[in-house]
Amino acid sequence: MKTTLLALVLMGAQWSAFAHNDTTENYVVHEWGTFTSVQGADGVQQEWNPIITTELPTFVYDLAKPSGNPRRASTAFGAKSAFRTLQRMETPVIYFYSDRERSVDVTVRFPQGIITEWYPQARDVGPSLIRPREWFTRIDDAARKAGLQPLVHLSSLDTKKGINESVIRWMGVNISPEMMPAADAPLLPTEKSGSHYYAARETDAAVLRVSAPMNGATKQESEKFLFYRGVGSFTAPLQVTTGSESDCVTLRNTGANELTGLFVLQVRGGEGKFIYVDRLPAGEDKSVKLLPGRDWTPPGELALQIGERMRRALVGAGLYPREAAAMVNTWRDSWFEDQGLRVLYLLPRAWTDSILPLTLDPKPRELVRVMVGRAEVITPAMEWELLKQIVRYNEADPAAKQKAVAETRKLGLGRFAELAVRKVLGNTPSREFSNLAWELLGATGKQEKGKATAVARR
């Protein structure tokens, strides 16, 4: 009898645990973020490493300065700038809305990437889960059935050990639904330096309080969202090809799901133009023409026009109006003002869930995830102009060198300059020419970094 009773108790405890995992509670979670890739005129996505990175507040944690030693398997990966990858996962933020105070466990996995920055402090960060080969086989089978590309090249796995999976886990995230009084405002960390980071706070989301191990003690931090970033090696579902003049742009959806809210944008010398494409079905192409000499809009007006259109698209995808505005304000200068040719588009929810699985315990009654893909294009015209400036930089005259640096800056390559130089160099056997190209890049980068720092301090 005692044995039977004990078995029933154990079975009840197990059922309670499973039931807890499946419980849906009355709170809402919304997330937005971006995935940035760079490709040439042929549409081939390239590995890249920005020489200029988007400034973040110093209180944000990263792999180079974890500032507290969350439980991680390894710290050997270094800073984000050490990676040359196909994708930069930039500024995903997770908002919470609740009818009452509650506690939630949050886990984000990044099977094909590495999480590099985060805030508040997390319980686990980095490649900390060892998954067997069979686990990835099941995941890849599910991806294929959904019409998605496999997550892992199984041939590269160690049959016995599997591979490390990048993960970030916040345990016991406390959601405070009441508005934070002015007296508590210092709970949210701030700095005087400018940053893309703070615009994301301009929402009605609840204040979060997170406790995590820090140097042998427990530290509590507050924020209006969970923030993280990373890098990954996988291709985005949009392929962009252009002609020699980049006036005709062809969009191809290489994924298994329809793409929506596509903005083809070109900025030159501060002016710009854009064309909006409502949807692009899976496997289909669409060509658009950015007519030369027509419809150029001044920079301030351009940002207002495309920003409002983008906000409407984000709200249509499920974000609240203030969340959509926060996302646009976060990336306004980078999306709408940086010189170049790019396509911004909404990534399918199925793609996001496959690339970036998110687990919430208990489950919310509503989960919205809106990711924007950014396809930056290095055009033949940009490559040709960069080549000319490398040749000019070869002149011994210091004035000519400064002219080459100034003209290279006008190209607006910014974070994508390192890739542009590699494409121009190709397979050149000239060590001297290669050295000149990288010297020019270094000189341009110093000026760009100084400019970015001056802007950030305004």
Q: What distinguishing features does this structure have?
A:
458 residues; alpha+beta; ten-stranded mixed beta sheet; six-stranded antiparallel beta sheet; 19 strands; 34% strand
Word description of this protein:
With 458 residues, this protein is of the alpha+beta class. The chain has 3 domains: 23-232, no CATH class; 238-345, no CATH class; 381-456. 30% of the residues lie in helices and 34% in strands. The protein is built from 9 helices and 19 strands. The strands form 3 sheets. Strands 1, 2, 3, 4, 6, 11, 14, 15, 17 and 19 form a 10-stranded mixed β-sheet that branches. Strands 5, 7, 8, 9, 10 and 18 form a 6-stranded antiparallel β-sheet that branches. A 3-stranded antiparallel β-sheet has the order 12-13-16, with no helix packed on it. The radius of gyration is 24 Å and the shape is globular. The termini are far apart.
Show the helix and strand layout.
Blueprint: H1 2-22, E1 24-40, E2 45-46, E3 61-62, E4 87-98, E5 102-110, E6 113-119, E7 124-131, H2 133-145, E8 163-176, E9 207-214, E10 217-223, E11 226-232, E12 238-242, E13 248-253, E14 259-268, E15 271-280, E16 285-289, H3 299-316, H4 321-336, E17 340-346, H5 349-355, E18 358-361, E19 363-378, H6 380-393, H7 398-410, H8 417-425, H9 431-456
Parallel strand pairs: 1-19
Antiparallel strand pairs: 1-2, 1-4, 3-6, 4-11, 5-8, 5-18, 6-11, 7-8, 8-9, 9-10, 12-13, 13-16, 14-15, 14-17, 17-19
